Amino acid sequence: MKYVYLILFIIMSRYSATSIGEDEENIIVFSGTVFREIVIWSPFRRLNGLNILQRLQMHEGVIFSITVNKSNSIISSTSDDRSIVIWKVEAFAEHQNTYDHWKFAKITPAYSFYAHKARVWKSILMQSGNILSAGEDGQICLKTSLRTYQWEESRGSQVRSLDCMEIKNLAASGCTSGSVGLWSLDTVPKSEILADYKKDNRYPKHLVVLSNNGTYVLYSDGHVVLYKNNTSNNIYQNDVLCCTLTMVKSPCETKVTFTTSSGHIVILKSTSAQVFFDKISPDKIVSTIWLNNSQIIICCRGNKIFYYEVFEDLKLNHLDTFCICSKTSSWITAAVLVENLIFAGCNEGSIYLFKLNHQEPIQLFSKIHSFAGVTAMWTHEKYSNFTVISSVGRDGHHRYWNVSTQSESVYEIRCDILPTKWPFVITTSLVHGLLICGFKESNLIVYSPIEQRILATVPCGGGHRAWDLTFNNDRDSICFVCSSSSNKLELNEIPLHGHHTLLKGFHSMIVNCMAKVTADLMITGSDDTTVRLTRFNDSVHNLLILRSHISSVRSVSCLTLKPNVYIIVTVGGRAQLKIWTLNITNNDMYCEESISHLLKTKQEKKPWRTVLPSNEGETRFMDVCVQYTKSKSILISVGCSDGILRLYNYDTNNKTLSLIEDNLDCNSCILKILPVQLNSYHYVLTTDTKGFINFWDISKYVDNSDVDLSFTPKYRHCLHQSGINCCDWLEIKNYYGLITTGGDDQRLSLSIFHYEDTVTLLCNTSIYIHFSQVTGIKAYNQFVITASVDQKIIFSSWNCDLSSKTVQVLPFASYFTTVADIHGLIAHKNGDKVKVIVYGQGVETFHADMSSLTQSPPPPYTISAIILAR
Amino acid sequence: MGKSSKDKRDIYYRLAKEQGWRARSAFKLIQINSQFHVLDGVKRVVDLCAAPGSWSQVLSKALYSDSEDKDDVKIVAVDLQSMAPLPGVVQLKGDITKESTANEILAQFDGGQLVDLVVFDGAPDVTGLHDLDEYVQAQLLLAALNITTYLLKPGGTFIGKIFRGKDSSLLISQLEIFFGDVVVAKPCSSRNSSIESFVVCRDFRLPDGYKPTMANPLMTNDSLSWDEMDVHRVITPFVACGSLSGFDADKTYPLEIDGLQYIQRNPVQGPIAPPYEKSKPLITTKGTSVVQTPIDQGVASAEKLMD
Ligand SMILES: C[S@@+](CC[C@H](N)C(=O)[O-])C[C@H]1O[C@@H](n2cnc3c(N)ncnc32)[C@H](O)[C@@H]1O
User: Deepest of A378, A445, A523, A715, by most Cβ within 10 A of its Cβ?
Assistant: First the structure.
């Protein structure tokens, strides 16, 4: 992505520029200024001392890009004001040289348009007249004379660079997640009109699309019409159908059911036009759900649920009846069958577990998907004693459930936040795996949770009309039919294969933290709110993306529970803490969100005092560490932005979390914490924004003893002028230990402590080795590695003499990384080889061979690097 | 999110409203001054990139109350953006990278009198890409330094915002050519997580034979090559300023501190006409993803520069 900078900064202090021309005399430079102006220059040719040919003003913000078409007749420009302006260039005379052309041309703005919701980084004028643009909103737009198509490269990241090759109809894009994508500009949705129903004075009430693109439409006059291959056929008519409330197809698409407010049901066989018609309920039928190809559930007013078998001759056989106990009117909107259990969601967002021959639900998750309702469910992997089910709802969440037929119970595994508040289908496709469709504003979107991007966005007028869709695996497309705003029935074929990933991306924002799960398996957290599980070897292999934190993820810590089972704790903004249980078996990965916790105090009700909103929701959890206690539960220490060190206890058997201590006050915002055992005491060290390090004795909680806990630190010392961003601990001998710290003050500091009973500082030293804040540190015997925002990783040797109370440190080698804004490092030493991973705005891994490094000076050392992302 | 959430997240944002500053940046200058006393005895000052004007507020408060002869005091504030008026502060709208702006500022100090202090708190629109932001910031600081070479009296002081990153050492060594004493300072009102810092440059002296000019870029800001990256180099001292007992910019404070009552307040001075103002209603129009607008030819202009 570096080339973007080049183009941007040809001319100092100008924000954008482009140049054309065949020889020096005719070189023309177009530059955009911070002053909202486009300036056209001839840098090597002056007239009366002037080399500015034209100035164009129209934009209301900084100009980000300028492009000129091949024939020099159109200019397009993009800006901070979110608009794209198209300028018309009228030549003064024909066959001029470039210089004269631009000198005498009449340039006027033709029109401007808004295609992006944020800053527009680039636009490209295609010879076809189409305009391609990319923006901060992560969208790539192709504007043709008829419509505008848009694509997303990677969720939550911006598209920073864009180019296109028109003869091949290809575009390439680069985005802030580090990914590079290739797009086929031919692969756009195609639409066709099936019917113009206005003239018949009726409208489509419901419709279903089959995978052969046959579309059954129920009109308001009770007619069922089949549209297929440019023909339409009236299939069936019944006045009862005028009050139809639901029309659904069976999973095999051979049967279509209609149910009405009068309690009637009609079943159509799509293969033979056979029909079944009956009144099955005295009450209004509000919903129908196919559980499989021969079983349905039907919900009636009064919260009653009937379970039927549908025979091949379309006759119905009543199997069971259930009911929902709710004061309000409630019905099932999505359901799946797991052996003898029915897992179902309702219109009020609750989820129920029913068991055959049991009227009442055996388990209830009240309003789990918020009041607006559950919209779809899907059966995923089946394990020996449980099945994974997922549900989506109008709260925009995708929840995974563990449904156990053995214990006949359900619990939630984890939850992802979707890019739409109105998902309505979960399905899998051969090419993309799991897919979720939903409405977003007035568009239909197709989202891939695996690729973490929206595969297609198609304007459709929103979900409040008759619509249905089906997947075509052979063509890797979706067929979507809806009634349009102009009283027409429109069929859209939406291709899903227009994108090819050339380079895989990573987090779309700063990587704040990284922890090791196994030798090459890392877990990372980012400002983009996701937690990722990634294998780092010769390449980056993304295994899992967990998107459920509501704010940035600041720290992650990992502990092995038993072979192949790991406990991972993530903390971040808005005082959120999550505990994940990760199971890794050969090639399968199962991750469960065991705890999701938000810091909140029970508001004391003091009626005589107006209670101020508490600050806890705004507290950031800055750092976390985990350790086992004597009683085999897990002690979680969290350093918080309100200066408090909070301790939690997590019971892995019952999966319960309790806050056990929140009175340890460091006064300033805590930046890092580190657990250490000194002699027989267990400490947590905290470092803060004022440069202090505090030793907190937490032996009481680790040893489960009943000694009293002191609310003041056992030892406290100021090591830096301002914040301490990183620290590491190394045991020396005879109760002496080394603490290495890196500060906002650009210093590396080494302090030797004695800790037999009390903690005392023996000696310390500090040096300036970086040009910016030090953010990553790792200490080994004889040397220490530091990383800083100045993009340097420095190896320094150290030695100490305990008798004379001296410690010395000297840098001996450095390595420059392309990762900007480094937030930390992880190092792993194996003999003389050290593997270092630095993370920040991207990730880089490199290896250093200490045997050649320590033979200084001069350092002909070997460092080999693999740059992983950005 | 509640209305008071920003107050809870950022103590200085809240304090700025309570004390009547237009921006929380005011505290940065106050804290730098309490450490280095850069405002002592100062009468003429230029505030580069001043909008919305909190540094100018601090300057005007300090300069007018300190001096016996208020007529000697002169504060010139320059920014690209419009800024609400402030009594006692001359405002210029201009781009600090342009020579014309330098001339306009010079014209304010008639008789070619030089100034005692130049402050610069400019920041380009941050793109979120740190290395790019750092580069643009360095370019802007060099532009400020260029202007300063015209304006500052020998022995005068320059304070400028920098982003500490991979090239900041080079930038600082360039500053050391012009100043006898350069220190990097970080006020405690600047967040720990931010890459922002300030250079406090004292004892200005033009190198022999150097003629101030804006015509060609003052210096290039190329990265050092691989082998130049040795680690034994003089490092400019770093000073954290603001007393240890001062408020912590990163800490989440309760709304009620030390029993003081909390009142929710509006910002002192909001931004004037952000560039995306016009697009707002257009890009939120429901049902259309692209909004095309006709051109108001009265607004647009294409100026042809003929001989
Ligand atoms: C952080 S604000 C300054 C805040 C100010 N010191 C205060 O205390 O209120 C940065 C300012 O730099 C201005 N700026 C950025 N680039 C500029 C340029 N080239 N010329 C002049 N002003 C510029 C912006 O308009 C913006 O108002």
Answer: A523
Tell me the CA distances in angstroms from B156 to A792, B122, B148, B152, one per residue in order: 34, 20, 10, 6
The answer to whether residue A438 scores a pLDDT higher than 80 is yes
Phi, psi of A617 (to 5 degrees): -65, -25
3-state secondary structure A390-409: EEEECCCEEEEEEEECCCCE
- Render the burial of A568-579: b for 16+ CB within 10 Å, e for the rest: bbbbbbbbbbbb
Please judge whether A53 and B305 are an interchain contact, meaning their C-beta atoms are less than 8 angstroms apart.
Answer: yes
A749: tokens are: 């500091």
Residue with tokens 């790019």: B132
Query: Strands B115-120 and B152-163, how do they pair?
Result: parallel
Residue B182 CA to residue A319 CA, distance in Å, equals 86
| Token output for A648 | 């939690």
Cα of A184 vs its chain's centroid, Å: 24
For residues A836 and A868, what is the distance between their CA atoms, to the nearest angstrom?
12
Sheet strands side by side (includes A715-718): A670-678, A681-688, A692-697, A715-718
Residue A824 pLDDT:
96
A5 band by pLDDT with thresholds 50, 70 and 90:
very low
Query: How far is the C-alpha of B226 from the C-alpha of A863, rounded, in Å?
Result: 13
The burial class, CB within 10 Å (0-12 / 13-18 / 19+), for A456 is: buried
- Strand-pair partners of A790: none
Helix (H) or strand (E) holding A853: helix A850-853
The pLDDT value given to residue A35: 63
pLDDT tens digits along A387-413? 999 999 999 999 999 999 999 999 999
Contacting residues for B194 by C-beta, under 8 A, at least 6 apart: none
DSSP string, A180-245: EEEEETT---EEEEEEE-GGGT--EEEEEE-TTS-EEEEETTSEEEEEETTEEEEEEE-GGGGGEE
Q: What is the mean pLDDT of residues B111-119?
A: 88
Strand-pairing partners, residue A518, are A521
CB spacing of B135 vs A791 below 8 angstroms: no
Write the residue in B168, B252, B299 that is nearest to A772 by C-beta. Answer: B168
pTM, to two decimals: 0.85
- Identify the pLDDT of residue B222: 45
Tokens of A533: 């599980």
Q: Is B129 on the interface with A (CB under 8 A)?
A: yes
Would you state the structure tokens that stand for residue A462, as one six-digit string? 């929103």
Cα diameter, chain B: 70
Q: Is residue B19 within 8 angstroms of chain A, CB to CB?
A: no
How far is the C-alpha of B35 from the C-alpha of B241, rounded, in Å?
A: 6
Residue B145 touches partner A, C-beta closer than 8 Å: no
Smallest CA–CA distance, residue B256 to chain A, in Å, is: 8
